[in-house]
Amino acid sequence: MLTKLTLPIANHSLKYNPSLDGLRGIAILSVLLFHIYPQYFHYGYLGVDLFFVLSGYLITNIIYTKLENNTFSFKEFYRNRIRRIFPAVIIVLLFTLVVGWLFLFPSELENLGKHIKSSAFFYQNFRLIDEVGYWDKEAQLKPLLHFWSLSVEEQFYIFWPLVIFAIYKFRLNLLYSLLGLLVLSISIKYIIEIDIFYHSLARFWELILGSLLYVISSKYNYEIFKDNIILSNKYLVFLGLISFPLYLWHYMIISYMYIFGLDVTQYGIYIIVISIILSYLIYRYVELYFRKQNSYKVTVGLFIVLFLIGIIGNYIYKKDGLPDRKHLIDNSKWQKQFTREPVKNQKGIVLTKKILGYIPNNDYIKSTSINMSKKYIVVVGDSHAHTSYPGFVKIAKKYDYEALLLSNSSCPPYIGGAMGKNIKDLQQCQKKIDNIYKILNSKLNIAKIIFVTRATTYMEGLGYGVIDGGDKKPYSGSKFKEYFVNQKKWDQKQQFLNNIKNEFKIFNNSKKQFYYVLEDPELGFDPKNCMIRPFNLFPSTCRLKKEDFLTRQKEYRNFVYKISKEYKNITILDPKNLYCDDEYCYTVKNGKMLYADDDHHSIDGSIMQANYFKDKVFNAN
Length: 621
What we know:
By secondary structure, the protein is α/β, with parallel strands linked by helices. The protein has helices at about 20-35, 45-70, 75-105, 105-120, 125-130, 145-170, 175-190, 205-220, 235-240, 245-260, 270-290, 295-320, 330-335, 345-355, 385-400, 425-440, 455-460, 480-485, 490-510, 545-565, 575-580, 605-620, and strands spanning about 365, 375-380, 400-405, 420, 445-450, 480, 515, 545, 570-575, 585, 590, 590-595. The radius of gyration is 28 Å and the shape is elongated. The model has no long low-confidence stretch (mean pLDDT about 90).
């Protein structure tokens, strides 16, 4: 049956229209290709928006048609939604839970437990608002991320029958009522401050738009989504019929592949085939069965099962991801390396306020002392400076130095080199940079400045590897002011290199010793995959080719070494040989994890780096 692409059609409340399933097929195919091949299908995420519109259209059609025929029942409506949605959700959540229990580390399973609960109770979209942006690389490591859209739809289904019923009973004009609700829904994000991606109020307008399309087509007796030969194509209809379980399966599989360190693009065809087979089986042998069950006892049973899954998820979360599972392998020596240190401490805030007269808005401010007369090394830069700081602190104490950290997230403190994703962001970056140089030029007894930032990402506007946005279009990150002022003359790479040269020129004549740390190798993968997972089914080499590292950083490294010859008082600190041998650069060295993520140091990595540079920094004249 699968090979012939023919499937039985479930019972429908209204006359079946294959073109609607054809549209669903287009929507799910777009989403599927976007998640597997985002570099080629940039706008495939719009398939979710199409799902929203279709859902609004169909639900309003069902409700209003039955109201007109005097056959509408709230109890029947919610029963139909439960038997349509809950079976596939239950199976996918249980599968996700079992895989997580078998293979995830406690911290990962703890997070999954939270998401099991919020997905089972259909508020995953609100959970994600406080956790991660949909486009962030960390989002790929959340197997139930995609349940945000299902949560929006379920929330809509709860109250929408009440809205349509009220409009009908009070004999309000349906067209004008929905038009008013559409305008209000679109305007809501300008009235109150809400997350414009995940929040239900920012998304309901799409479902209401679908409802309005139904009313327009009904009023003017014109079927907007009418049957036609293209949309009724058997391949699209097949995908449309299995689109709901296919949506649930595919991203969960993709996310687990990211978690286990597998190349999603390389295995893309297998993901598609497996997802389709699983979805077919659910539709054919689970969905169709439950959609034939009119008993409310079955509906209550489904409700109870999903509720219990949510309770299990909450239990796992409360129990810290079940760290006592007998099949877990002890990775405690590495696992602690993935926790970032606090971004600020009280001494840093007191010291900088003493100097500036106010508490600066910089992202990272830490100090080992508040005494301005003591001898300091100052670590400045971006988030790489933050993760390098612990090691330099430890070494500095041995040489009777205090240490101060002044750095910003994605805002490298090059003089005249403020960056941002928009003008407001850029202006905030400039204020943070100004704070740093006010302190560097203050009466604080600064002997040494260690400058640590990322580089090639700022030059190219791209991260390294899919996990770091390397699959996105260029210049998707922070940009210099010239981009917003005169894009015709904007050259991201050249401006960044000019910033480095300008920095060297200024500090070459300074009495303070200036050390410039070259960028460490970017992994392009999550170092958590270097830990040994249960059953050791997903081993990782935990290394990258040295040639790949040097190729990506070639222009940057050559430029820095070239201009350093002009500025003799600038000391270059090159971590290449710390991480790499003749062939590879490593994530783990001497039994220690060097990375906290794909490009930032772990605590052990920070200490190892500082020890590697200590003779140059602290024994230099």
